[in-house]
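Chapter review: from sequence to fold.
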Amino acid sequence: MSATTPATLDGTWVSDPIHSTASFAIKHMVVSTFRTSFKQMDATLEANGDDIKLTGTVPVESIDIELPDFRGHVLSPDFFDAGNHPNIEFVSTAVRRGEGESIDVDGELTVKGVTKPVKAEGILIGPAVNVANVEVVGVELETKVNKNDFELNWNAPLPKGGNAIGDEVTLTVHLELRRKEE
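The C-alpha cell string follows.
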C-alpha cells in the first residue's frame, strides 16, 4: 500500500481512543453553556460500497467531571442512572453521503434505557494514510435532542424565572477510526 493511495472505505474501521471524543453541551442557569465530554468511547464504522453502518458505545462512568458531588449527581438516577444504565449507545439506521465530505446519519440513540430516533449531520473524511502509515477515516457528527425525551427530567426553577438547565442538548462526536486488522 502506498502512503499516497489509500484503499476504499470498504471494510471495518474502529475508533482510536486517543483521537476520538463524545461530548455534550446544555444551557446552564439561562446565561451560559455547560460542556463536557466522556473519557472513553468505542465506535465502529462498517462500509460495503454505499452501505455504511456506524455504531458507538460510551460508558457513562467515563464522564469528565471531577467535582465529586456534581459527578455523583450526574451519575445518579436524577440524570444518567449509571448504576442501572451504564452505557449510552448509538446504532445508525441510515448513512447518506452528500456533496463533498458531508453526511447525514439517522439512528437510534439509547440513554438511560430509553431509545429514540435521532438525525445527525456532519462530515466523513478519508480514507487517508497517517504518519504511522495506518489508514484512517474521520467522522464528525452533531445533533440536538431534548433531555426529557430520555427521562433526564431533573431541573430546578431559578428565583427570577427559567430553570437551572435547559432542555435542548447538543451532542457532538469526533471520531478518528483506523482500519481493523484482520
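Two observations follow directly from the output. The chain has one domain: 11-179. The longest strand covers residues 114-129.
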